[in-house]
């Protein structure tokens, strides 16, 4: 099964997950809406 680290490997590094306080081993279905928003804002601001 795919985890966030594999799904987002071209977008986020390990340090990004640490900054977001989200485990890279989580799967997408484990995230809250707030987590998705946090990831989206982080990616946009660091693009």
Describe the model:
- The chain has 47 residues and is an all-alpha fold.
- The protein has one domain (4-45): rRNA adenine dimethylase, C-terminal domain (Helicase, Ruva Protein, domain 3, Orthogonal Bundle), CATH 1.10.8.100.
- It has 3 helices and no strands.
- It has helices at residues 4-7, 14-20, 33-45.
- The longest helix is centred in the C-terminal third of the chain and has 13 residues, at 33-45.
What amount of the residues lies in strands?
under 5%
Count of DSSP H/I helices: 3
What is the radius of gyration? Answer: 10 Å
Name of the CATH superfamily:
rRNA adenine dimethylase, C-terminal domain
Give the gist of this structure.
By secondary structure, this protein is mostly helical. It has helices spanning 4-7, 14-20, 33-45.
Secondary-structure map:
Blueprint: H1 4-7, H2 14-20, H3 33-45
Name its key features:
51% helix; Helicase, Ruva Protein, domain 3; 47 residues; single chain
């Amino acid at each position: 099964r795919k985890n966030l680290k594999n799904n987002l490997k071209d977008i986020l590094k390990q340090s990004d997950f640490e900054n977001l306080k989200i485990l890279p081993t989580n799967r997408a279905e484990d995230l809250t809406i707030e987590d998705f928003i946090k990831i989206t804002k982080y990616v946009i601001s660091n693009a």
